[in-house]
Amino acid sequence: MFLTPNVPPPAYLCYFIAACWLNFQRALALVVMTAVVVFFICWSLFKKHCGAKVMLLLTALHPVDILSVTVWDFLCRLLWVALLGGLITWLVLDTSRNPEQLISLAGFCFLVLFLFACSKHHGAVSWRAVFWGLGIEFLFGLLILRTTPGIQAFQWLGDQIQFFLGYTTAGSSFVFGNTLIEEVFAFQALPIIVFFSCVMSILYYLGIMQWLIVKISWLLQVSMGTTPTETLSVAGNIFVGQTEAPLLIRPYLADMTHSEIHTVMTGGFSTIAGSVMGAYISFGIDAASLIAASVMAAPCALAMSKLVYPEVEESKFKGKAKQNILEAASNGAAASVGLVANIAANLIAFLAVLEFINSALRWFGEMVDIEGLSFQVICSYVFMPVAFLMGADWADSPLVAELLGIKIFLNEFVAYQQLATYKKNRLSGLEEWDGSRKQWISVRAENIATFALCGFANLGSIGIMLGGLSSMVPQRKGDLASVVLRALLTGCCVSMLNACLAGRSLPTASGATKNQGRGGDTHRQRAEDPYKCRCSNGDSWPVLPMALPGPPNPLLSPHGFARGCPSPRAVLGPLTLIWAGMGTFQGQLLGHCKESWGRGGMAHGTCKHSPRYRT
């Protein structure tokens, strides 16, 4: 704003003073933008005139030159031990108030260990990259999800993006008319992609996006020790898609190592493009959570990529990357037409295929008296332990597991649509249960699902990734195909790690927090007896604090999970799939809830006064 030829600095200064004098509160956004611009102008001038002198001074005062190498290594290790001890102490003190958050922490550790078990070269792992990446992710998560300034800042940013995307209506209503915009999905969400792509193209043309990506990649590179090319691509994935980000490093793709290619792919699978983010926001998905998930995914993707596929080759790009390799996404609005058409075609095809699969599964299920068998039900079994470890309440885990399955086997667009439906049902005041079907999930589970779904890691993206990169470096098709599945797994786990961190940081779903927007649940547990199951016959019996509900019972619950009083046996929750068929005999074995009976006179073990489940 200071450098535009039509508005010289004195004129802008007068305008700025007048705006602040008339109404400082109204001009607060202008003050912030001006302060940011002034800071970077001053920083640029400082680097230009004093940067070389400062670097010489820092080199002369390098601690290794002053202290012996042994003493310096000892001090570094002592600092790391102190930081680790402080982190563990803080986690213990913080989770002592909400022990349920330990589940998310356990899920985080489990996923990291799982990825290490899948590592290509266990002995070559760069632990500096891993710890720094996870540390930056944790710091971002703590700032965004736990501190008041961070929460307010990202909420404000999300609100501004929603307000900005609202300008799409001006163009789409003129072309399609107000009636179509209000009633037809294709004319509600898809025009936002066109508008957002146009804006991104303008930002590239002005050089703003390149500058921002370079600064973020520099921060990640100097802290994690990764090469400039792979770091630049991952940083670009925060803003652009999985095929656009590699354009930033296109001249170097032919000479990249297998580990660097794996990192480029992982970055694409673990994030979403800014254009489709606008569409998800239009669904009603929380904008602040989407932005936070995209920012947190970059360092985590670098860290987990180097954990799964460590560098064992000699990289050719250890120097500083030249900024002139950045390629702008030209013709933004025109190029987005293909993207919009691709999304619309995929939605039609995927939803049609999903309906066919569900019809076929229902038909096969009815042959053996299993009602309501569907793809979503199968996913709720397979991914339910994962959803629970991410921090979702056990009652919400089946629905979160469904969303994970839809995201991985179909795409995240369909999954976010379903999540938006659950959110709309909750805000509309619908009953939590409609017979055996749960109609919405808690606010905490919604936020966790938002983080878990934020990524392009699905089976369909394999073809998109291979097609995009193969067109840039056709001579390396074999290398690309050899690492793509490992990158897909890593990218999927990165999104889940972000969800675990969100579950660790967000308030637990207890009391009114669980039922925001509905006015509470009349069957909620009393705070003074948190681990009691109460039946209408007056019986009250304690259960283990970490006990889970009884096993799912597809024969008695069309949705795929039983609702009942927790049993001591249920601590084997992660083994749900193994003993799912035993759910029919749950009530006969326990007999705690004598008034609930399933079909055919067989005890189902359900309790309508259970704190988490209602009949």
State mean pLDDT (0 to 100 scale): 74
Biggest sheet architecture: 2 strands, antiparallel
Helix content: 55-70%
The spatial strand order of the largest sheet comes to 1-2
Element-by-element helix/strand order:
HHHHHHHHHHHHHHHHHHHHEEHHHEEH
Global morphology: globular
Which percent range describes the beta-strand content?
A: under 5%
Structural class by secondary-structure content:
mainly alpha
Low-confidence stretches: 1-7, 320-332, 511-615
Q: Compute the gyration radius: what is it?
A: 27 Å
Domain Nucleoside transporter/FeoB GTPase Gate: 187-284
Subcellular location: Cell membrane
Transmembrane segments: 27-46, 66-93, 105-123, 129-149, 161-181, 187-206, 261-281, 287-309, 330-353, 448-468, 480-501
Family: Belongs to the concentrative nucleoside transporter (CNT) (TC 2.A.41) family.
